Each structure stands twice: as structure tokens, then as C-alpha cells.
From TrEMBL:
It comes from Acorus calamus (Sweet flag). It is found in: Plastid, Chloroplast. This is Small ribosomal subunit protein bS1c. GO terms for molecular function: mRNA binding; structural constituent of ribosome. The keyword Plastid applies. One of its GO terms (cellular component) is ribonucleoprotein complex. The keyword RNA-binding applies. GO terms for biological process: translation. It comes from the Eukaryota. InterPro entries: NA-bd_OB-fold, Ribos_protein_bS1-like, Ribosomal_protein_S1-like, S1_domain. Residues 94-164, 182-246, 259-327 form the S1 motif domain. The lineage of its organism: Eukaryota, Viridiplantae, Streptophyta, Embryophyta, Tracheophyta.
Length: 409
């Protein structure tokens, strides 16, 4: 080998020939010898040797885990299953468990309840209201909540959870509390039948009989509307929730003072007047009480959906009827026809003037009656001889009871 190297060392590279055919250069032999020396030096590198050693250890460990994974381990697979059974989670139907949401999808959410397997919360069990995705009600990964076990998936033995059941119990408790406090609540009408309508209150579906609705309206006319309601019966065991609109309206009307100004919305027009919704109460604005000027066609002044200010003239609490007026709010006769905006701007001022005029008229009437008291034998009550202003008392020559029969309401 040394002789061969000595032989090559005497050679010299000749210039590249211009001839198209060139002989191979003999310089490649020394390059091959240099490469051999470099490889030997790399093999002696301590870093390379350490990497090679670690590689051999890893391959040995991999083969041992693949061929004999439990070799030298005192804890067996049987011990593992025995421990799981010993600390198995309570999975009885109706039991309450605490869990953490860690994944959501279009159908519900996966919940970690520290059991053998994760539990699932379907979207229909996520809320007492109808939702399309659990995120609509704030169910996101990381949420910690208390759930109720309502079922079990036979495929993988995972548990099915519910938040709706807990909310359902809380809703019944809330309704019992509102009934005890005799509170007026708002209920949205979502359906009906020949006996009444179905309204949603506190997430529960309650029944409102037609006999307990203050207006003569069909179920279709009340659909999607909110009604003021009071609780008549709250029975969770029988799943009976009965409500009354008439009782709520009676209490609301008790708070309406004659001469007070309220904001209302035109519901419908009739030849004899317009029905105005004043916060859930249906009042009648008679055609003669729209303006001092004669109104031949109500549609030229009002349209369904219009918002306006009206004054309370009278109300019959037993029948649930309220008489309204915009005529009394006109600064000058005919303003309701020519400039209704001015009427609404001056409404409170005109109503105050009206109340003062009525108070003066009552005072004068009482003074006149007092002069005849010895002869007539009349005695004054706490409300005076005339008492409070009643629907039967004419005002400015207009009968305040000039309203259609209750059946038309």
C-alpha cells in the first residue's frame, strides 16, 4: 500500500487538453485517501460515540417494551382494573356530578367528570330554552358546572348529562316564589287551542284560559305577543302552570289615575274608535275623543302601529275597560288633526290643566251641596258628596261611557 502511495506521489497533473477526448485525471487517487483519513477521525469523535451509545440504548428499550412491556413492573393490568372498579364514579340516574367542559361541537359538549370515561352533554339538555349550539348559553371549554346524570350510552358506557333538569327545578321554585309574592310577570304566547293560549314564563309553558284573558281575542291574534300575567296555580308534581291575564290587568288598571298621561300604541281601528295598547292594557280612544274637530274617518288621523300619548278618562276595573282621550290634550281645537306632534309635546302640560279644572269643578260642586245639607240630610264621606270622578260623570258634554259593548272589545 505504501509502495502504491509512493508511486502515485510522483505523478503530476497535466493541463487540461483541448482535445475532445481527455484521459481521466490520476489526481482522484489522493482524494480517496484523504476521505479515508477524515472518516477515521470522525469515528474517534466523542460526541459521535455518545450518540451511537444512546441510539443503541433506545433500540434496546424499544425492543423490550414491544416484546415484554410488563417485565420488571410490579403493578399488573389486573391491579389497574381493580383500582378503577374500587374508585368507580357514582353513576346512578338523577345523581348530581361536578364536571369540566373540555370540548364542544354542533351536537353538544364533552365533560370530564373524573370517571372511567368522559360524559356527554347533548345540546337539547344544555338549556331550558331551545338553542342550536351550546355556546349560545356560555358552555365553552374550561367551564366548571354541576350536571345531572340522565342516561347512559350503551355503545361505550359513557354517561349522558343534563343542565336542563337543574334549570327546570329552579324555574318551578321561581314560579312558586312569584306566586307567593303575587307578582305580575310577562309571558310570551307561543301557541293555543280552543280553551286558551300557551305562554312561556320563566322558561316554563303555562296555560292561560280564554276566561282569564281581558280582551276578546283569538289565539292567532295573540301569538308571539307578550301578556302581563299572574299565577293562578303552580303544581310541579302535576306539571300544571295556570296563569291569568285578567288578574294582572286588574292590578295594572288600579294604578291608572284619571287624568294621567301614558304612551300607547294603536292596535286596531274601528268605525267608533281606535284600540290603544297602554303597557299591556287595551284602552279605547273613542272617535269623539280624538279631537275637538269632527273626525269623519279615523284612518286619516291614526294608523295601526302609531305611537302616541293619551290621557286616561276612566277605567272600569271589573270589566277591564279603559277610556282614553287625545282631545283633552289639544292646545287648540283641531291640533290632533293638523299638528299631532305639538299635541304630544304639550300633553303633560294640558293634562295638568285638565286635572286642575276637574278639581275646581268638584270643589264648587261640593260647596253647592254643602249649602243644602241641613235640608237634604246629606252627610259628607271621606271622599265628599260627589266622590271621585266616575265613568258616569259627563265631562264637557261628552259621556265617558260612550263605548261599544264588552263583546266588541
Amino acid at each position: 500500500m505504501a509502495a502504491l502511495a509512493q508511486q502515485y506521489s510522483g505523478l503530476r497533473c497535466s493541463p487540461i487538453s483541448s482535445s475532445p477526448i481527455s484521459k481521466p485525471s490520476p489526481v482522484k487517487a489522493p482524494q480517496r485517501a484523504t476521505f479515508t483519513v477524515s472518516a477515521v477521525s470522525v469515528s474517534n469523535n466523542p460526541v459521535v460515540r455518545e450518540r451511537q451509545r444512546l441510539k443503541e440504548i433506545f433500540e434496546e428499550a424499544y425492543d423490550r417494551c414491544r416484546m415484554a412491556p410488563m417485565e420488571g413492573v410490579p403493578f399488573t393490568v389486573e391491579d389497574f382494573h381493580s383500582s378503577i372498579e374500587k374508585y368507580d364514579y357514582e353513576s346512578e340516574m338523577g345523581a348530581k356530578v361536578k364536571g369540566t367542559v373540555f370540548y364542544t361541537d354542533a351536537n353538544g359538549a364533552l365533560v370530564d367528570i373524573t370517571a372511567k370515561s368522559s360524559a356527554y352533554l347533548p345540546v337539547q339538555e344544555a338549556c331550558i330554552y331551545r338553542i342550536k349550539h351550546v355556546q349560545e348559553v356560555g358552555i365553552l371549554p374550561g367551564l366548571q358546572e354541576e350536571f345531572v346524570i340522565v342516561g347512559e350510552n350503551n355503545v361505550d358506557d359513557s354517561l349522558i348529562l343534563s343542565l336542563r333538569s337543574i334549570q327546570y327545578d329552579l324555574a318551578w321554585e321561581r314560579c312558586r316564589q312569584l306566586q307567593a309574592e303575587d307578582v305580575i310577570v310577562k309571558g310570551k304566547v307561543v301557541g293555543g287551542n280552543k280553551g286558551g293560549v300557551v305562554a312561556v314564563v320563566e322558561g316554563l309553558r303555562g296555560f292561560v284560559p280564554f276566561s282569564q284573558i281581558s280582551t276578546k281575542s283569538a289565539a292567532e291574534e295573540l301569538l308571539d305577543k307578550e301578556l302581563p300575567l299572574k299565577f293562578v296555580e303552580v303544581d310541579e308534581e302535576q306539571s300544571r302552570l295556570v296563569l291569568s291575564n285578567r288578574k294582572a290587568m286588574a292590578d295594572s288598571q288600579a294604578q291608572l289615575g284619571i287624568g294621567s298621561v301614558v304612551v300607547g300604541t294603536v292596535q286596531s281601528l274601528k268605525p267608533y274608535g281606535a284600540f290603544i295598547d297602554i303597557g299591556g292594557i287595551n284602552g279605547l280612544l273613542h272617535v269623539s275623543q280624538i279631537s275637538h274637530d269632527r273626525v269623519s274617518d279615523i284612518a286619516t288621523v291614526l294608523q295601526p302601529g302609531d305611537t302616541l300619548k293619551v290621557m286616561i278618562l276612566s277605567h272600569d276595573r271589573e270589566r277591564g275597560r279603559v277610556s282614553l282621550s287625545t282631545k283633552k290634550l289639544e292646545p287648540t281645537p283641531g291640533d290632533m288633526i293638523r299638528n299631532p306632534k305639538l299635541v304630544f309635546e304639550k300633553a303633560d302640560e294640558m293634562a295638568q290643566t285638565f286635572r286642575q279644572r276637574i278639581a275646581q269643578a268638584e270643589a264648587m260642586a261640593r260647596a253647592d251641596m254643602l249649602r243644602f245639607q241641613p235640608e237634604s240630610g246629606l252627610t259628607l264621606s271621606s271622599e265628599g258628596i260627589l266622590g271621585p270622578l266616575t265613568p258616569e260623570l259627563p265631562v264637557d258634554g261628552v259621556d265617558l261611557n260612550d263605548v261599544p259593548p264588552a263583546e266588541e272589545l
